[in-house]
Amino acid sequence: MDRILINIGRQVGSGGHSVAEALGAKLGISVYDNELLIRSAEKSGLSASFLKENDERRGFLGLGGMLGAPTYSDFTRNMLSESDLFRIQSETIMDIASHGSAIFVGRASDYVLRNLITLDVFVSAPVEARKAAVAARQGITPEQAETLIRRQDRRRKDYYDLITMGDNWGVASNYDLCVDSTVLGIDGTAEFIIAFGRAAGRI
């Protein structure tokens, strides 16, 4: 294929980003996650830290202070809705996809690229494995990790469902492949996705 486009949706703590990185290494394709935020920031003139703070977050966002010290009238203009934020990231995703192969992590990229030939994958894992992974990564207790997982998963779901105007985040019928990363491990999961993608004619 002249262009390979893979979209990775993921539960918090499932290893979805690591799976994407493994895919990128095996296929020789760039992975866009935090890098996507940097490109979006460069394109929009916003700070990367602001976009990261509000990434995959549903809500109405004030930009006062992001574009300089605002007056009251500035504040009424310097507001960014979730649709504006989505538009900025979507334009970046489309631009990257138009130039060649890419692997996108989150940010409703499967919806953004729905009119192109893509491989859409959702990575999940049992909650106990996710709690252990997040607790180790963040240096927190399993109980704190569970709270964090619930909050961030809800944030991702709300964002995705709002953008797609449906209730589709993590729903199997919305993806080409849903996979539990603990069954084969990160590397094995990446190999499985590649085999599936080749059989499906997407890789």
| Element-level helix/strand string | EHEHHEHEHEHEHHEH
Q: What is the CA–CA distance across the termini? A: 7 Å
- Within CATH, the superfamily carries the name P-loop containing nucleotide triphosphate hydrolases
The structural domain count equals 1
Q: Quick check: average pLDDT?
A: 84
For the biggest sheet, the summary is: 5 strands, parallel
CATH topology: Rossmann fold
CATH architecture assignment name: 3-Layer(aba) Sandwich
User: Into which percent range does the helicity of residues fall?
Assistant: 40-55%
Structural class, from helix and strand content?
alpha/beta
Task: Determine the number of helices (DSSP H or I, runs of at least 4 residues).
Answer: 9
Q: How much strand?
A: 5-15%
Number of strands: 7
Shape: globular
Q: Note poorly predicted spans.
A: 58-79
Task: Evaluate the radius of gyration.
Answer: 18 Å
Oligomer: single chain
Describe the structure.
The protein is an alpha/beta fold. The chain has a single domain, classed as P-loop containing nucleotide triphosphate hydrolases (Rossmann fold, 3-Layer(aba) Sandwich). The chain is built from nine helices and seven strands, in the order βαβααβαβαβαβααβα. It has helices spanning 16-27, 34-44, 48-53, 72-77, 82-98, 109-112, 127-138, 142-164, 181-199; strands at residues 5-10, 31-32, 61-62, 79-80, 102-105, 119-124, 177-180. The strands form two sheets. A five-stranded parallel β-sheet has the order 2-5-1-6-7, with helices on both faces. The protein is globular and about 45 Å long. Mean pLDDT is 84; it is low at 58-79.
